[in-house]
Design brief:
single chain, 321 residues, alpha+beta, Beta-lactamase, five-stranded antiparallel beta sheet, two-stranded antiparallel ribbon, globular, binds glutamine
Amino acid sequence: MAGLAGGLTGLSASSVDTAVRAAHARYLTLNEGANADYIPALAKVPSKFFGVSLVTGDGKIHEAGDTTEVFSIQSISKVFNAAIVMEQSGKDFFLNNVGVDATGRVFNSIEAIEQYKGKEMNPLVNAGAIATVGNIKGKSAEEVWDTIITFYSAMAGRKLEVNQEVYKSEADTNQRNQAIGKLMSAYGLFPMDPGVATDLYTKACSVNVSSHDLGNMAATLAFGGRNPVTGKQVMSRANVPGLLAIMATAGLYDDSGKWLFNTGLPGKSGVGGGLIAVAPGKFGIGTFSTKLDVAGNSIRGQRAITDINNTLGTNPLAQFG
Ligand code: GLN
């Protein structure tokens, strides 16, 4: 009867709870890595916070630690901007325009843009991400912003807001992203004004979320675009697999291959310390811990998710029936 007890996920609630609590406890005192500091406001976020939130298909949330502490979503926003463009323009938009292949370069590489003249990127590196935002449809910057924040909020199941301090801090110091936006615009890769596209991208990176919110957002992807807590179909089921594929190949910067090798889970990290991972049909998980490894991924987040995935036997590439 384990299947019944676990609802559609096939996981029993008590085994999930135990796995989440054990992983949180195991890494609570791990103190390796460092906050991102190239965006000044991120350097100040307390590194003691550690939250782990896992959401299953029956809408149950299994969590431990500082799960309501908010922090800026950063690059995890890129997933949801890509989702909006897929919803508006079809998933093949990315095959034909921004690209879906890992660049093999750092996330804010300008050389990669030059090498491919802005094509052959993907929506999870800055060039592709800014082009993605620049392709969101709307009559004005305000209307595009409204589309973005409404979509993120539906994914999270609550109204999300911008962290104004982080937004200002990044807007004052994002000359490199402005250059990337202009270069992508020069290659004709999006119709929006590049200054507006980069600003909206930056604002989207500054949206405050908790691990609880990220768990919901990841779970919405894990269950075909339907938030299992609110029951709302936020995006179409048909667009989710392509999005997960891009996360699988490029979600954790230059360690995306290592992450996939270890977990099999499509994931996405942000330099604010957030990390999401998706076990399709099983769970979505979100974690928060600011200290990053050299690749820019949250150390405690990666460890906790890897442990939970191993304990529950949910690596999607190991489902042999
Ligand atoms: N806003 C950050 C930037 O563009 C996002 C980067 C990240 O989380 N990797 O630099």
